[in-house]
């Protein structure tokens, strides 16, 4: 697909900042999550369908991996450098999995959709082409930007 210059992909720093705030990649205003493990189906501000196709967020596993590595690497370095015993190593590892999993899960979806929006902003201009939505959902209004 060729790039269409009429679509504004936004800046990398803008996407990083609003991904940290769990905001919509299109309008930067609507919250992607309405609570723990509960993602909004549509952006409450601009109406964008977040799940662009069935299985869309499977790609978020890549982001989840990097979030997990980023958050746990300092602890891993401390464990290795301080020559901790196996029980300490095991307990800290289990604790990190419990603490990091929810953070990685929520951020993985947000990061994934921000990357996708940055790469192909023209694919986010309506919900009409989103497979897996009902006819009524495809007609869900997506407010034009600008
Ligand atoms: Zn939005």
Number of domains: 1
Q: Can you list the ligands bound to this structure?
A: zinc ion
What does the largest sheet look like? 2 strands, antiparallel
pLDDT under 50 segments (min length 5)?
A: none
CA-based gyration radius: 18 Å
Based on secondary structure, the structural category is: mainly alpha
Q: Globular, elongated, flat, extended or rod-shaped: what is the shape?
A: elongated
Per DSSP E runs of 2 or more residues, the count of β-strands stands at: 2
> What's the end-to-end separation, in Å?
24 Å
% residues in beta strands: under 5%
Oligomer: single chain
Q: Give me the number of helical elements.
A: 4
Mean pLDDT: 90
Helix content: 40-55%
Order of helices and strands: HEEHHH
Strand order of the largest sheet: 1-2
What would your notes on this structure say?
The model has no long low-confidence stretch (mean pLDDT about 90). By secondary structure, the chain is mainly alpha-helical. It has helices at about 10-20, 60-80, 85-120, 135-140; strands at about 35, 40. Strands 1-2 form a two-stranded antiparallel ribbon. The chain has one domain (about 10-140). The chain starts with 11 loop residues before the first helix and ends in an 8-residue tail after the last helix. Helix 1 packs across helix 3 and helix 2 packs antiparallel against helix 3 (about 85-120). It is about 45% helix and about 5% strand. The longest helix is centred in the last third of the chain and has 34 residues, at about 85-120. It has four helices and two strands. Zinc ion binds near residues 30, 43, 46 and 48.
């Amino acid at each position: 697909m060729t790039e269409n210059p009429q679509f504004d992909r936004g800046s990398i720093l803008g996407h990083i900042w609003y991904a940290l705030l769990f905001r919509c990649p299109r309008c930067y205003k609507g919250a992607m999550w309405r609570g723990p493990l509960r993602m909004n189906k549509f952006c409450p501000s601009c109406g964008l369908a977040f799940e662009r196709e069935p299985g869309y967020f499977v790609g978020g596993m890549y982001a989840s991996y990097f979030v997990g590595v980023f958050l746990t690497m300092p602890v891993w370095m401390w464990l290795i450098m301080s020559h901790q015993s196996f029980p300490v190593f095991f307990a800290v590892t289990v604790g990190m999995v419990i603490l990091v999993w929810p953070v990685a899960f929520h951020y993985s979806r947000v990061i994934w959709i921000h990357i996708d929006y940055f790469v192909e902003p023209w694919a986010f201009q309506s919900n009409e082409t989103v497979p897996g939505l009902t006819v009524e959902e495809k007609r869900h209004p997506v407010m034009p930007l600008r």
